[in-house]
Amino acid sequence: MDLLELVSSNKIFGGLQKVFSHQSTELTCKMNFSVYFPPQAEGGDVRLPVIFYLSGLTCSEQNFISKSGFQRYAAEHGIIVVGPDTSPRGVKIPGDDESWDFGVAAGFYLDATKDPWSKNYRMGSYVNKELYDLILSAFENVVDIDRIGIMGHSMGGHGALTSGLRNPGQYKSISAFAPICNPSACPWGVKAFTGYLGEDKSKWVEWDATELVKKYDGPLLTLLIDQGAADNFYIQKQLMPENLVEACRSVGMPVILNLREGYDHSYYYISTYIGEHFDFHAKILKA
Amino acid sequence: MDLLELVSSNKIFGGLQKVFSHQSTELTCKMNFSVYFPPQAEGGDVRLPVIFYLSGLTCSEQNFISKSGFQRYAAEHGIIVVGPDTSPRGVKIPGDDESWDFGVAAGFYLDATKDPWSKNYRMGSYVNKELYDLILSAFENVVDIDRIGIMGHSMGGHGALTSGLRNPGQYKSISAFAPICNPSACPWGVKAFTGYLGEDKSKWVEWDATELVKKYDGPLLTLLIDQGAADNFYIQKQLMPENLVEACRSVGMPVILNLREGYDHSYYYISTYIGEHFDFHAKILKA
């Protein structure tokens, strides 16, 4: 715990919504992340499931914890929830703040291989190795290592899917709100992958959920995908859940696609269905 | 409806969270306000109860609609919820942006009498006359004029209490989160009242809930007051709910004071108990 600095702590639904900062070795910068401890964590004599939540473009660790209302459901189910930031912060790479969909707050949860991004933009290893291990060690008295799930929104939905598919067995449950499902084939993804990974598209398949599904051979997973039908990014084909569903069907991976009439891409939409996602994760993690 | 401009509309919990703007005659500026229409409002063949929600210092109409999670409960109960902004905007009075607790976003829901504030800073009449009448006329097909309540937070809790007590019968149900209960006796209130109303304290009692309770003689009211015990502003005696409770007891007005162990002044706290407040209002408004 020496390496963690407490940024804030607020009581909500009987538990504590905390934000910590720490020095990341993967990203070589100081990073914030959030942890919600439900009331069941008090006392520390019981190990609880954990869900990682990955946020979307332009977000920090704050959006999800202040706007989604997830704490009510995490408290009901007794689940710890961890939320990282969306990119390295303060590393000052030329061009890192010129776009809202590339660079700062747009790390895409991958490990960049192209200069000048490859030194710091390693959100894939940060989330799935460094932060994951940090949570397990710093909170080992309350975390159940065998019951860990992951979810995310938009770019973070892509992150949740790729984190789960690239690391078989590490996450028992996976769900996503309006995820970027096939980044190799949409404008956001092409821009990010070209910038972070280079022009060679054979490298892109390692970070594309629709491609990763086709070669997944880990433990059985069921993917829960949620999508607002009035989401402009869905209509503009940035997200393409149908491509992911088609890939799942081609290899027999169970997938649920819930299309929500009239809902958009915002946290108003997420807050409406976050309870259903917690039910889904709890059913798997508490089985 | 011609006078209303739709700023945004987002589907949440089956209803629509809208923000409108309009030109206010009381404040002589353009103002935003929010309206949540629960799913029961669709079709417009049933008149629903309405709750006005008044926000606290530094807030706009956005904080409550994005952070409290109230829409879940409004949808469950079938209640329309209206949220005004917290002060005139863009009127550019010298000194209006020098403090976070006076001027912009700090209108205190009163009618200023002192220059240069008296022309624009008329939030009392704006909320209780202009906006109230606007809601009743613009949405007359879905609003039940006989079932209107009011609630608020901090400065807006003061606003809810004074609005209800100054206008007997206009609001059937009143509740407040961490309200400024006795502004004449706390630093925030003394600063605001001196600035907006002048030095003559005999004028202050007209806008002080603890004083207004003592001379209230309208229909029976029960005040629901919620207060986080770890709220720094409570500890620093900016809020003083005990003074309000004492005044209620002295005149026999029913009051409920719920002190919440460990909770602070934030929307994390409000989101935890907003459901209980909707239950309270629904019990009265739907009786």
Automatic annotation (TrEMBL), chains A, B:
Q: Please list the GO terms describing molecular function.
A: carboxylic ester hydrolase activity; S-formylglutathione hydrolase activity
Q: List the catalytic residues.
A: 154 (charge relay system), 231 (charge relay system), 265 (charge relay system)
Could you tell me what reaction this enzyme catalyses?
Answer: S-formylglutathione + H2O = formate + glutathione + H(+)
Localization: Cytoplasm
Print the keywords alphabetically: Cytoplasm, Hydrolase, Serine esterase
Q: Which Gene3D superfamilies match?
A: alpha/beta hydrolase (3.40.50.1820)
What are its GO cellular component terms?
A: cytosol
Q: Name one GO biological process term.
A: formaldehyde catabolic process
Keyword Cell membrane among UniProt keywords:
no
Q: What is its EC number?
A: 3.1.2.12
Keyword field contains Hydrolase: yes
Q: Which Pfam families match?
A: Esterase
Chief subcellular site? cytoplasm
Output the superkingdom of the source species.
Eukaryota
Q: Which InterPro entries match?
A: AB_hydrolase_fold, Esterase-like, S-formylglutathione_hydrol
Q: Where are the transmembrane segments?
A: none
Q: What family is this protein classified in?
A: Belongs to the esterase D family.
State the function annotated in the UniProt record: Serine hydrolase involved in the detoxification of formaldehyde.
Q: Which NCBIfam families match?
A: fghA_ester_D
> What protein name is recorded for this chain?
S-formylglutathione hydrolase
